[in-house]
């Protein structure tokens, strides 16, 4: 048999996808263990590769960034993702997970090659496919037998066809291309990958589908569906999911702004709205706009795909416009409070990452807000449990960085809450008050109740609720 099929003992029993083989003394489990190559070892590639190794497969993660691979070889995890550190260490120790810049060897030893490189937005909003197509070229140059090439990156409809074309132009070896979009959330990526809501597998090949189904079987034992579809539908599904989530956020932000004008409270509205089972409670929190490496670029990219097909996605254009506006609402409140005179004011910022539990600041609203305040002549003293190092790469010595969030408050005119980290939810309010020049909070994430703020004697601005 071509594939590397092994027998494994109890260690993997929790993930057993196959059938049990009768054994006189110990139950043995038949597991189809595979050799996998993951090209692109970023937020997605590193998590996916590690989780595939966790189920017993042999995984080689490849990256063209030598510094990143060198760090991983020294046991340093280049990103903050809860639980990842321990899982990487465990699988490296067990010789199931390794890291390299040598794409050729990794590809040639693998049965399945994942492409999980970045797809940043191009100038016109379309997804920049240069990294995906370059990975496809590398695969085509080194193919040495049948392999399944899996596109994990978020890519516009038709990209699997392009990948297929590039590889076919470089080799006579047989291969199949699969679109298998990734739905994990940064901050809960390991958990999401190990226990997915669903797996989408887009392929026109039964052979490739059978292999992918086996690969994912350990992750869907609880009952999550593996949904098979065409590559084009799979590519579209990923954009549809992100566009829907972004729409919910912009919808709530737009409503929140109206709530302020008519003296309604968005928090109460959210509860009333989300209790409808057709609507659901999740993703209904207003704030200072969505950010991160996915929603902004994916909304832009699907709008662009529509334009290229002479169609206009009006709803998503509005979602994007509302989001752009929302990133400025907190600064507008600050300017209104001070009568536009921000020069010489100092603001303590709690939270820089685009959301809690990550060090990722790509497209984070905090970056837009800090830039605007600096431009208005204000000073910033910033704190974040994980994102200080990344933020330093953007602002250098233009702002102060405080690992201790209370130290950031010293002598500041007000506190700005820009990411809803858990540790900010129940702070020492007396300490905040005594460190600030005035008891003033601008909360972009609505993490305190207005009643509590009134009780604690703060002037408190939030989103979609009355100022107290
Ligand atoms: P990332 O920027 O963190 O990582 C991409 C990695 O690919 C980098 O380390 C880069 O050096 C490497 N790379 C680029 N070209 C390469 C090549 N030719 N050979 C080897 N390595 C190469 O990106 P990410 O956040 O992991 O996202 C990857 C893809 O997954 C994107 O399409 C993204 O939209 C999608 N996605 C991301 C998330 C997320 O939460 N970050 C979730 C779902 C899907």
Counted up, domains total 3
Q: What is the first-to-last residue Cα distance? A: 71 Å
**Sequence of strands across the biggest β-sheet:** 6-5-4-7-8-9
CATH superfamily of the largest domain: NAD(P)-binding Rossmann-like Domain
Residues in helices, as a percent range: 40-55%
The main pleated sheet reads as: 6 strands, parallel
Beta-strand segment tally: 17
Summed over residues and divided by their number, the pLDDT gives a mean of: 93
CATH class assignment of the largest domain? Alpha Beta
Q: What is Rg?
A: 24 Å
Low-confidence runs of at least 5 consecutive residues: 1-29
Shape: globular
Which architecture name of the largest domain does CATH use?
3-Layer(aba) Sandwich
List cofactors, ions and other ligands: nicotinamide-adenine-dinucleotide
Count the DSSP helices.
17
Question: Would you write up a description of this structure?
Answer:
The protein is an alpha/beta fold and 468 residues long. It has 17 helices and 17 strands. It folds into 3 domains: 9-229, NAD(P)-binding Rossmann-like Domain (Rossmann fold); 239-324, Rossmann fold (3-Layer(aba) Sandwich), CATH 3.40.50.720; 327-461, Rossmann fold (3-Layer(aba) Sandwich). The strands form 4 sheets. Strands 6-5-4-7-8-9 form a 6-stranded parallel β-sheet, with helices on both faces. Strands 14-13-12-15-16-17 form a 6-stranded parallel β-sheet, sandwiched between helices. The longest helix has 32 residues, at 231-262. 46% of the residues are buried. The structure holds nicotinamide-adenine-dinucleotide (NAD). Nicotinamide-adenine-dinucleotide (NAD) is lined by residues 39-45, 62-65, 68, 116-119, 131, 134-135, 153-154, 182, 184, 186, 293-294. Nicotinamide-adenine-dinucleotide binds at residues 39-45, 62-65, 68, 116-119, 131, 134-135, 153-154, 182, 184, 186, 293-294.
């Amino acid at each position: 048999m071509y594939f590397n099929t092994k027998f494994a003992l109890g260690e993997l029993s929790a993930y057993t996808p196959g059938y049990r083989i009768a054994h006189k003394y110990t139950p043995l489990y038949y597991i189809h263990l595979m050799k996998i190559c993951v090209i692109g070892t970023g937020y997605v590639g590193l998590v996916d590769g590690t989780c595939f190794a966790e189920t017993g497969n042999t995984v080689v993660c490849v990256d063209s960034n030598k510094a990143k691979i060198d760090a991983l070889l020294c046991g340093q995890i280049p990103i903050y993702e809860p639980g990842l550190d321990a899982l990487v260490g465990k699988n490296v120790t067990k010789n199931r997970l390794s890291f390299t810049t040598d794409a050729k060897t990794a590809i040639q030893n693998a049965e399945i090659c994942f492409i999980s490189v970045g797809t940043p937005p191009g100038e016109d909003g379309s997804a920049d496919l240069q990294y995906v197509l370059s990975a496809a070229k590398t695969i085509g140059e080194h193919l040495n037998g049948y392999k399944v090439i899996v596109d994990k990156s978020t890519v516009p409809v038709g990209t699997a066809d392009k990948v297929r074309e590039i590889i076919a132009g470089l080799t006579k070896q047989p291969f199949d291309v699969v679109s298998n979009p990734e739905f994990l959330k940064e901050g809960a990526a390991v958990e999401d990958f190990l226990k997915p809501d669903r797996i989408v597998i887009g392929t026109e090949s039964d052979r490739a589908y059978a292999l992918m189904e086996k690969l994912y079987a350990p992750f869907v034992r609880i009952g999550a569906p593996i949904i098979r579809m065409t590559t084009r539908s799979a590519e579209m599904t990923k954009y549809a999911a992100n566009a829907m989530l972004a729409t919910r956020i912009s919808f709530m932000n737009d409503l929140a702004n109206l709530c302020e004008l008519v003296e309604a409270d968005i928090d109460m509205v959210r509860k009333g709205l989300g209790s409808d089972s057709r609507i659901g409670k999740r993703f209904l929190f207003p704030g200072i706009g969505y950010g991160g490496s996915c929603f902004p670029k994916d909304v832009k990219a699907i709008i662009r795909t529509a334009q290229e097909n002479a169609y206009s996605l009006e709803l998503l254009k509005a979602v994007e416009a509302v989001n752009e506006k929302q990133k400025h609402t907190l600064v507008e409140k600050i300017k209104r409070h001070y009568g536009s005179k921000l020069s010489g004011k100092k603001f303590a910022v709690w939270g820089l990452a685009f959301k809690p539990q990550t060090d990722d600041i790509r497209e984070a609203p905090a970056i837009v807000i800090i830039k605007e305040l600096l431009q208005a002549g204000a000073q910033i003293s910033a704190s974040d449990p994980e994102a200080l190092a990344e933020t330093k790469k953007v602002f250098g010595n233009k702002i102060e960085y405080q690992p201790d969030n209370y130290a950031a408050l010293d002598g500041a005119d007000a506190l700005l809450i820009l990411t809803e980290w858990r540790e900010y939810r129940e702070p020492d309010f007396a300490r905040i008050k005594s460190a600030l020049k005035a008891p003033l909070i601008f909360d972009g994430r609505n993490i305190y109740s207005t009643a509590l703020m009134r009780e604690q004697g703060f002037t408190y601005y939030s989103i979609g609720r009355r100022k107290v």
